[in-house]
TrEMBL record:
The lineage of its organism: Eukaryota, Viridiplantae, Streptophyta, Embryophyta, Tracheophyta. The keyword Transport applies. Keywords: Cytoplasm, Electron transport, Redox-active center, Transport. This is Thioredoxin superfamily protein. Has a glutathione-disulfide oxidoreductase activity in the presence of NADPH and glutathione reductase. Reduces low molecular weight disulfides and proteins.
Length: 103
């Protein structure tokens, strides 16, 4: 759990992902399109990936751990939560408050 917290606090937006996960790619692409430079942490390329994945699944409350998105060091959720925030107009203000975008 400490490694998740440490990684998540290093940048304004952190996406825990797997390189083969299309939903992780979609979420990362959304952030890029909004002008954010997210830190994408590929769990399948990290020697501690399985340990981190178990910690994320526990935090999210379900077995699918990716994508897991942190904004401003706080867990926001997975694809459904990010898309819901975006569609409701609440994602951009959250990104501004975290310092991920300035416009």
């Amino acid at each position: 759990m400490d490694s998740v917290t440490k990684i998540a606090s290093q940048r304004a937006v952190v996406v825990f992902s797997k390189s083969s996960c299309c939903m992780s790619h979609t979420v990362a692409r959304l952030f890029i399109d909004l002008g954010v430079n997210p830190s994408v942490h590929e769990l399948d390329e990290d020697p501690r990936g399985r340990e981190i994945e178990r910690a994320l699944a526990k935090l999210l409350g379900h077995s699918t751990a990716v994508p897991a998105v942190f904004i401003g060091g706080k867990l926001v959720g997975s694809t459904d939560k990010i898309m819901s925030l975006h569609m409701s107009g609440n994602l951009v203000p959250m990104l501004r408050n975290a310092g991920a975008i300035w416009v």
